[in-house]
Amino acid sequence: MNDAWRTADDTTGAKVLIVDDNAGIRRALTLLLDVNGIGSISVASPEEALEAIATQDIGVVIQDMNYSEDTTGGAEGVRLFREIQARDPDLPVLLMTAWTNLETAVQLVKEGAEDYFGKPWNDDKLISSIRKLIQVRELRLENRRLVAQGDRARRKLAENFDLRGIVYRSPAMHQVLSLATSVAQSDAAVLITGPNGAGKEKIAEIIQANSRRKDGPFVTVNAGGLPDDLLEAELFGAEPGAYTGSKSRREGRFEAAHGGTLFLDELGNLSMKGQMKLLRVLQTGEFERLGSNRTQKVDVRILSATNADLKAAIRAGTFREDLYFRLAVIEIHVPPLRSRAEDILPLAEWCLPRFPPPDGVFRPLSPQAKTALSLYDWPGNVRELQNKIQRANLVAQGPFIEPSDLDLDSSTTFGAGAKRPSGPAEAGVDSEGGAPELSEIEEALARAHGVISRAAAELGMSRQALYRRMARLGISVERRMTARS
User: What average pLDDT values come out for the chain (485 residues) when binned by 10 residues?
Assistant: First the structure.
């Protein structure tokens, strides 16, 4: 009879699963763990190991590479590891190997195993590794819980509101959409800020779609692109003969939006004269067509958007403070794509079928292409991502879309060490003046008890951005655990 399912019961919580056909090794490891206050379960075969993983609270697996008599190739260990990965990819696995299995163990580390150790082993080093991996498991489960919580929140939001088909996964965008849908039913003016290409107009569409004006018109005007001599005619309309070449009555955008929503894009580029005229109609709700002295009144909700820092423009005297307060009753900031890295791959996958390749063969992204997309800095945001995917569909020749098909500028990838532009929206991320340094990150991790999501929130970063920053600073899993303890 073997000692399968033998358990060291003097500890609680997740246990170490020992998988080895040698009873002496199982007893030695069980005793070592027991002496160090670590609970364990030991089994003799891969089948028993998989049953234990399915039914017990396992924090770390220590597995041998061979289980049948006179086998040394490690094939059984490879199959067991891959089955564990398939069932629970977040479960840390330590490999026990003899010199004949070393090459196989190295390959499995590349596939996701945490590490390998030889027989005989160093007790202190092995216990240290196991303690750290138990904490790694806790962190992964916490992150998994947070991801699942986020998935439920996204589903609930999509069930309750019309999100106009927006694709996102990041907590940052969920916060944006939650705010947008919560203010949609009011008639309050909303100012949407963020960089070009980040999706400000999509947020405006979502507000309109969930408002009491959803059945009314949604009129968009590029406010900053209107020269002063055409501004009044464009916004308020014009009578015949009001200006050279005007032969018929022209309806302005305010009239066209009556009963609905007027979206003023590129607001920060509006001239001072244009700002003054816009302020008057916002204050009174009244205007006159160019060339007419008859006052008209409209019922319009105003949404506006800008990539400019309007508060800085107010200080510089180039934007009216009274107009800002009229337009920014609610302000919603759409973060750049680089600070919501969770959205990159879902958006890329969404774009793929929307740009048919010339040969009609839709190609998936290769693992290398996915990595390249995730590491790219995206200065052009979602708009640039769409362009890169369209290009890739046009030029790709192989069975997959590869990094070379995407034509990503290596000087603007995180891995190239490029600095991000600094700005008020980038606090806490890897920017020229605001990147958290090694000591700040480790202190934040310590305060968060090693939970990446909490440390990221404290630093004002996404989880993925923090992981990238940690990688660039050389903060390994081991150092993370040191910061936590």
Answer: 48 81 92 93 93 92 85 83 90 81 79 83 90 87 80 93 94 95 96 95 97 96 81 82 67 91 93 88 84 84 95 95 96 94 93 92 90 90 96 94 88 43 33 59 73 71 69 52 40
Report yes or no on whether pTM surpasses 0.85: no
Token representation of residue 264: 């003023």
- Residue 460 CA to residue 470 CA, distance in Å, equals 14
CB neighbour list of residue 55: distance below 8 Å, 6 or more residues apart: none
For residue 208, give the nearest of 171, 257, 174 by alpha carbon. 257
Judged by DSSP in three states, 220 sits in strand
The closest of 163, 162, 213, 218 to 185, measured between CA atoms, is: 213
**Pairing assessment for the beta strands 6-7 and 40-43 based on DSSP bridges:** antiparallel
**Domains of the chain listed by start with CATH number:** 6-141 (3.40.50.2300), 164-333 (3.40.50.300), 338-413 (1.10.8.60), 424-484 (1.10.10)
**In degrees, to the nearest 5, what angle opens at C-alpha 37 toward C-alphas 36 and 40?**
100
From 375, 370, 367, 337, select the one nearest 472 (Cα to Cα).
375
Report residue 205 CA to chain centroid gap.
Answer: 22
The phi, psi pair for 116, rounded to 5°, reads -135, 155
Contact (CB, 8 A) for 250 and 238: yes
Cα-atom radius of gyration of the chain, to the nearest Å?
Answer: 30
Closest-CA residue to 47 (of 25, 27, 19): 19
Element (H, E) at 438: helix 438-447
Q: Where are the beta strands (DSSP E) in 392-461?
A: none
